């Protein structure tokens, strides 16, 4: 009999406690029932350890146990949800550039000359290579250094299709040439509208192997690394030491 009382009490108390929690933090009905029953069981166990008490005392402890356990569980779950929630482009822009966030006003078209600029394209590849060889990061194209959103119309104008799809196709092909096809496995490209302008978001995961950039006109490939809020090319001796430390599997350590 007491078993069914615990089940009913925990379930009812769990539903009641769940109503006290803001909508986005609430658990599902099944989770609420399980957590509420566990909490009620804990409350009844405490009552027994304290000497039993009358029926009302046991009932109140069961309700208190269900409510406390449910509220604690929902607080923990809400924090984990918040931590795992992807940060939007607007939030990234508001936070500014950092060791894991970089702004570029354009990927291809020079805003001053109006022409396609090889140097801008190479800077994009270097930035992504730096993220790959460090702890990863996010590149926002269409956002000026001061955080103002300038959009991608200029870049669209110098792509074959003249739209998002054309820019993404160019970017993936260019990165494949400069960094190697395997590097693309750690790169995700998406687009968001901010202040009525398109922004290209390039999320880069930390690579499990060193990624070298092949620059036009150079016989050797270079290692770029994100250092603070800048991307720098390592000298040969620096690159050897960095690879040994950051990618021990690549050197047989």
Descriptive terms for the model:
253 residues; alpha+beta; Methyltransferase, Cobalt-precorrin-4 Transmethylase, Domain 2; 2 domains; 3-stranded antiparallel sheet; 8 helices; 49% helix
Report on the architecture of this protein.
The chain is α+β, with helices and mostly antiparallel strands and 253 residues long. The protein is built from eight helices and seven strands; from the N terminus they run ααααβαβααβββββα. It has helices at 2-18, 29-49, 55-84, 89-95, 118-133, 153-157, 164-179, 236-246, and strands spanning 101-104, 137-141, 187-194, 197-204, 212-213, 222-227, 230-233. α1 packs across α2 (29-49).
Strand content: 5-15%
Domains counted in the coordinates: how many?
2
Poorly predicted segments: none
- Strand tally is 7
Name of the CATH homologous superfamily of the largest domain = Schlafen, AAA domain
Number of helices: 8
Distance between the amino and carboxyl termini: 63 Å
Strand order of the largest sheet: 1-2-4-3
How would you classify the quaternary structure? single chain
Q: What is the element string, with H for helices and E for strands?
A: HHHHEHEHHEEEEEH
Structural class: alpha+beta
Biggest sheet statistics: 4 strands, mixed
CATH architecture of the largest domain: 2-Layer Sandwich
Taking all Cα atoms into account, the compactness measure Rg is 27 Å
Overall, the morphology is elongated
Mean pLDDT reading? 81
Bin the helical content: 40-55%
- CATH C-level class of the largest domain: Alpha Beta
Per the CATH scheme, the topology name of the largest domain is Methyltransferase, Cobalt-precorrin-4 Transmethylase, Domain 2
């Amino acid at each position: 009999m007491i078993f069914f009382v615990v089940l009913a009490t925990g379930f009812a108390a769990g539903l009641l406690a769940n109503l006290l929690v803001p909508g986005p933090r609430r658990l599902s009905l099944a989770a609420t029932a399980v957590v509420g029953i566990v909490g009620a069981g804990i409350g009844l166990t405490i009552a027994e350890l304290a000497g039993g008490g009358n029926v009302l005392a046991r009932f109140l402890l069961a309700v208190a146990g269900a409510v406390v356990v449910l509220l604690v569980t929902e607080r923990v779950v809400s924090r984990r949800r918040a931590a795992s929630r992807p940060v939007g482009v607007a939030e990234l822009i508001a936070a500014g550039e950092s060791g894991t966030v970089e702004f570029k006003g354009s990927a291809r078209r020079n805003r001053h000359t109006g022409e396609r600029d090889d140097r801008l394209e190479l800077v994009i590849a270097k930035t992504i290579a730096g993220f790959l060889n460090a702890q990863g990061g996010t590149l926002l194209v269409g956002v000026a250094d001061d955080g103002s959103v300038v959009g991608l119309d200029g870049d669209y104008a110098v792509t074959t299709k003249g739209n998002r799809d054309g820019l993404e196709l160019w970017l993936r092909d260019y990165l494949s040439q400069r960094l190697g096809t395997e590097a693309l496995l750690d790169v995700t490209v998406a687009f968001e509208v901010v202040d009525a302008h398109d922004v290209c978001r390039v999320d880069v995961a930390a690579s499990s192997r060193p990624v070298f950039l092949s620059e036009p006109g150079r016989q050797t490939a270079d290692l770029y690394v994100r250092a603070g809020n800048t991307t720098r090319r390592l000298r040969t001796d620096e690159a050897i030491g960095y690879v040994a430390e950051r990618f021990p599997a690549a050197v047989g350590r």
